[in-house]
Amino acid sequence: MESIENLTQNLASRFPMNPLEPEEFRRQGHLMIDFLADYYGKVENYPVRSQVSPGYLGEILPESAPYNPESLETILQDVQTKIIPGITHWQSPNFFAYFPCNVSTAGILGEMLSTGFNVVGFCWMASPAATELENIVTDWFGKMLQLPKSFLFSGGGGGVLQGTTCEAILCTLVAARDKNLRQHGMDNIGKLVVYCSDQTHASMQKAAKIAGMNPKNFRAIETSKSSNFQLCPKRLESAILYDVQNGLIPLYLCATVGTTSSTAVDPLASLTEVAKKYELWVHVDAAFAGSACICPEFRQYLDGVENADSFSLNAHKWFLTTLECCCLWVKNPSALIKSLSTNPEYLRNNASETNKVVDYKDWQIMLSRRFPALKLWFVLRSYGVGQLREFIRGHVGMAKYFEGLVAMDKRFEVVVPRLFSMVCFRIKPSAIIGKNDENEVNEINRKLLESVNESGRIYVSHTVLGGVYVIRFAIGATLTDINHVSEAWKVVQDHAGALIVDAFLSK
Predict the structure, then answer these.
(1) How confident is the model at residue 432 (pLDDT cuts 50, 70, 90)?
(2) HSE on the CB side for 344, CA within 13 Å?
(3) Residues linked to residue 328 through DSSP beta bridges, in sequence order
(4) Which pLDDT score, from 0 to 100, does residue 346 have?
């Protein structure tokens, strides 16, 4: 009979690979940090928007995985020559599209530590520090925003780090749905109505679909330029009354602080008063602009949040924290838990069953979860409230400067008032001789956007507000400074001048 020692040696010889040998990890880790540091050092030299064509990568990579190992050096070389050309560089200082997704040394290092530990923190017992640190940092952040105590663990509410706003909205909508159906009966799900504005992020409509809402009961209430595209409380109440008169059940209102298209801010105080009359769950989506409210001069935009049921913002947008990190606060955690909890035998433990701890698996869609609190903790501690405020103010100041540049050029106009760090502008009709039709003006602005983006020098995106095609200039990249903003405006002016001349010659 083979000895235990020989059996052990034979088995060991069959498994020679150690994919987590500490010293090799150290060596490759240094290579990776050097690679990323070099990338950030030259990121502004790359075309901001990727210039590749669809399917490019399949043409240059092998059709199957390698049988034998390849070195990290070889892999990184392919990253440089094959992957980077297909990246749109969100961290470029010349990235002004969509919304910020800024990062920082602290955010990356916190993410690295979270990934390195690779804990699965679905319940407190699975990694107590992951849960308790999240309790602490969400309370810290809530206090920075001057959220009502009822949103904090210290006041009976609490915060959780979701992946994205889409998840935060879906979780709260499901909680509102189930709470309502327990009162009115499960067979009334087809009568539940969801309200928002036509400027609300599309994640609201997606969440309603997933939550089983009748598509006919989704109310995207029209906004207008006269109110800077805010959701009107009177229009909201009219819609609610109409639905009640038709036997429907008002369920959920999503109000926005900083809409995607124009960073409009809905009047929370007035909207929550209307919602309170009809017992709607109110969620406040402050995905982008919420971070600015740590600054006293912007806190006014959260007035009325005390009457909401839930509030969320994305720390991965404008708070130096890597994707994904959506902060969600709720006044009544039990509403989430009743809808989202699962308690299989293999997860039972004394701490959970005595209600002494938070089990975040019951606050989210997924069961498994990472350790996201580490990166937010790193950011809060590394920069402090003071520096974080100045970082945000710097971007707002650059946006104000850009707004001034637009105003000085008589060919352009600012379409809606700037509130934070995004400017919505366009070539105005009077600058385009013989092209006064709104559709023609929109087409000229569309061509301007595409021309600018094809240059690779900057990247901007667009929206349509009240039928007007608008260019959105969103400042928020970590590496952007005033010189990048000035150069970006010169790029816009040069391309606009060429288009205006072409339009004149073709009239």
Answers:
(1) confident
(2) 6
(3) 160, 312
(4) 85
